[in-house]
Write a structure and sequence with these properties.
By secondary structure, this protein is mostly helical. It has twelve helices and no strands. It folds into two domains: 46 residues; 236 residues, MetI-like (MetI-like fold, Orthogonal Bundle). Helices cover 76% and strands 0% of the residues. The chain is globular and about 70 Å long. The protein starts with a helix and ends with a helix.
Length: 290
């Protein structure tokens, strides 16, 4: 090897090491900043969390205010969101990946789905305000919020389903066809079971995003102060992010502590959902042997 070639190799190795060091530095700075934010949130919010805080309605007095209406409202909204986004998203992903012909129409659908996944959430809120609230007359209800968030996270479920199905090796399908299996039998008994982990991961990520959304719910009329629990999907509602916004906007420091406590609970709930997704993905991979 010539001297010039040796020098070029050394320069490239030095650049690789410099890039690796810079990447690790950026990662470390990001983790430090994240740890500082989470630590500050926990130090302010954890002392406020107790049974009374979780079972009380909002109040004009910070020491008596609680999260009951907010977390129950979040539960109602997420159930409606999941009922819309999960079955429709998985079905659409299966159709686009396994059944849809490869033509201009499906190409346009794929591009539209990818673009919808990156649209700001406030756009979905404005669309829902004109369509669900005014056009269909659903009002400022749990159903409106669930439909809005369902449309917001639907592209995430579709994309995750398609990517999971695409990751299944072709010989799985060929083996099923070779023993006389139909298209649906192949998908139902082989492709979908093997892709369950990836699909569930996408579903949990979508639900986690819906759980933390605020802008579209403010647009469709989520209440900032509510002292009753919704009993049907047509009742008014509030959710955890809206309640946090209400408390943060108050000038009293005690309300800020309440908001920090709500943030801790929301963070724990989101991390729990992501942990469930990881566990399901791991268990699904252990059961599958290609």
């Amino acid at each position: 090897m010539s001297f010039e070639s040796t020098l070029t190799v050394r320069v490239r190795r030095w650049r690789d090491r410099a890039f690796l060091a810079l990447s690790l530095l950026c990662l470390a700075l990001s983790l430090v900043a994240l740890a500082a934010l989470v630590g500050d949130l926990a130090s302010n919010g954890l002392p406020r969390i107790d049974r009374a805080f979780l079972t009380s309605f909002p109040s004009r007095f910070a020491s008596e205010a609680g999260l009951l209406a907010a977390w129950v409202g979040s539960l109602f909204v997420i159930l409606v969101t999941a009922a819309l986004a999960i079955p429709i998203g998985i079905a659409a992903g299966v159709y686009l990946e396994e059944y849809a012909p490869k033509n201009l129409w499906t190409n346009c659908l794929e591009v539209a789905m990818a673009n919808l996944a990156g649209v700001p959430s406030i756009v979905f809120g404005l669309m829902a305000l004109g369509l669900f609230v005014y056009r269909f007359g659903l009002g400022q209800s749990v159903l409106t919020a669930g439909l809005t968030l369902g449309l917001l996270v639907l592209p995430i479920v579709v994309v995750a389903t398609r990517e999971s199905l695409r990751a299944i090796p072709g010989y799985i399908r060929e083996a099923s066809f070779a023993v006389g299996g139909s298209k649906w039998q192949t998908i139902r008994h082989h492709v979908l079971p093997y892709s369950t982990g990836g699909i569930l991961t996408g579903v949990i990520v979508a639900v986690s995003r819906a759980l933390g959304e605020t802008a579209p719910l403010v647009t469709v009329g989520a209440l900032t102060f509510i002292t009753f629990l919704p009993t049907s999907v047509m009742d008014p509602f509030t959710v955890l992010p809206i309640q946090m916004f209400n408390w943060v906007s108050r000038p009293q420091e005690d309300f800020h502590a309440n908001a920090a406590a709500a943030g801790v609970l929301l963070l724990l709930l989101t991390l729990s959902l992501n942990g469930v997704a990881l566990c399901l993905r791991y268990r699904s991979r252990k059961r599958v042997h290609w």
